[in-house]
Amino acid sequence: MSHDAPPARRHTIHFSRALLPGSWAENVRLALEDGVIAAVETAVGPTPADECHAIGIPGMPNVHSHAFQRSMAGMAETRGAGDDSFWTWREIMYRFVDRIDAEALQAIAALAYVEMLETGFVRVGEFHYLHHDPAGAPYADPAELTHGIVAAAAETGIALTHLPVFYAHGGFGSLPANEGQRRFVHDPESFARLLEAAREAVTVLPDALVGIAPHSLRAVTAEELRLLQEMAGNAPVHIHIAEQVREVEDCLAWSGRRPVEWLLDNAEVDGRWCLVHATHMDAAEVTALAATGAVAGLCPVTEANLGDGLFPAPAFLGAGGRIGIGSDSNVLIDMAEELRWLEYGQRLVARSRNVVAPGANRSTGQTLFDAALAGGAQALGAPAGLAPGNTADFVSLDADHPSLADRPAASILDGFLFASGRGAVDCVWRRGDKRVSGGRHVARDAVVARYRRAIGALIA
Question: Catalytic residue among 64, 169, 277, 280, which?
Fold first, then answer.
């Protein structure tokens, strides 16, 4: 019996214009082999063997997602009694968590990942903290719900950086977890078993990674954080931090220090780390965090939806800080919308325009896209961009879209992010396979049908 390896998959894509590392180029041919970019040629005309498109850009990493929260998108927009805030939203989220089983989780995550790919996200950092059964009891397989996430990634084709979440406490000072958090909680020993099981679970995916995610300073102690860093090794480490003013106040009351300040004093924060939100930092924290080389994981649509506040982007970027973008609660999944609102929030506060652009004659869209691409790749542990050796993850834009037609290359991303958005996304390739064509994922109909069955049962 022959055990010869299957023949290599080879094909070529030609773009009239493509965004390569550092600049736009004309007449670009990508040679793909087994899902990887084998070669990049520029200033070459198309051949009959090429699949031809007009505009090519790299696919974007999504640094922060809670896939299961896609099930409650738009269902927490009725004002309750008294003040409505992140903390009241959280109680609604806990009620949804109570109803989700492994089958429903897979259906929900698959829809979220379809929508991510349709807008140009190609790898997701899944900050996964739903671990136990609805009663809070561990499953026989610690990775029972991780398998649902992995299956959704396999079905849709999105790349996965899986981030199992360690969640041990309900507040600063080791307060006990509350009833709504019963499906999240681990101690270090049980979490180590989960991490081992998750690493095994993702081996069915071609380029998946497993990082680690201390949920927040509310949920871990200093000693637990030290143990988690040892478990992570060189893998990505993600943590929620300084998302809410109350969180900052509680941290000050507990430790005398602000959250980012406390973390930098108590953990070896470096380029492996992604600090999600980091919204409420003072000037000293901004400078100190930028100096670590860590990524600030920003989720402007969710941060606006929850009334979190506004990240100090100009100061952080001006200090050399690195950023990535994520869809977080998945209330609206749209890569361009995240970047647009990152800039628009700054404009509303500063009452100015083109706030994040670093100087005269610099494109705001290009600045945002380049920063999020580089920071996202770093945060998720996988290179991104149209370069030899990288995974063949890229997007074609519709050059006939009114907001892109006849644009010079230097303003394409401005037209995409600020004027067209997802309506200009034509095709999306993941590992060289075209997962989105004409703006629609190839499995959309089947995924939506299964999601509708799952959400109907949850709502009922």
Answer: 277
